[in-house]
Amino acid sequence: MAAITFKEKPVTLQGSEVKVGDKAPDFSVLANDLSPVTLQDTKNTVRLFSVVPSLDTGVCDKQTRKFNEEAAELGNVKVLTVSVDLPFAQRRWCGDNGIENVQTVSDHRDLSFGKAYGVAIEEMRLLARAVFVIDSSDEVVYVEYVKEATDHPNYEAAIDAVKRAK
User: Catalytic pick from 30, 37, 48, 60?
Assistant: First the structure.
């Protein structure tokens, strides 16, 4: 498993670590209207999963805004921000911040995404900061488990991976 820290303290990640070349694991999360969202709901397109602990924190806010800006330029790419924030809070946050190019989804119900992608923090019931790029054939083509959960991901590397994905 990836070794990460949260505010410099080691945390335990639940689930299986995902690696480049793996088939993307399926999951079931909730859209802001409480409808289920699975991997297959975004099939046949390149996907970027931006995973954050909570939208109501500074780094998560900036990460989601950055990928929202990038998504406007990427064309046929689906960008999903995954957190354990309640769907109602995600909808409010998006509305308050003009987020229109990223879909926020909630893993609050059962940590399905968190466990499938190895980002569920056992001690906190939050998700570790990570970025995954999945190509249109469901192959994982980019993975970043951010070593310190309060740090930013490598935005350039993630966007480059999206641009190279088919």
Answer: 60
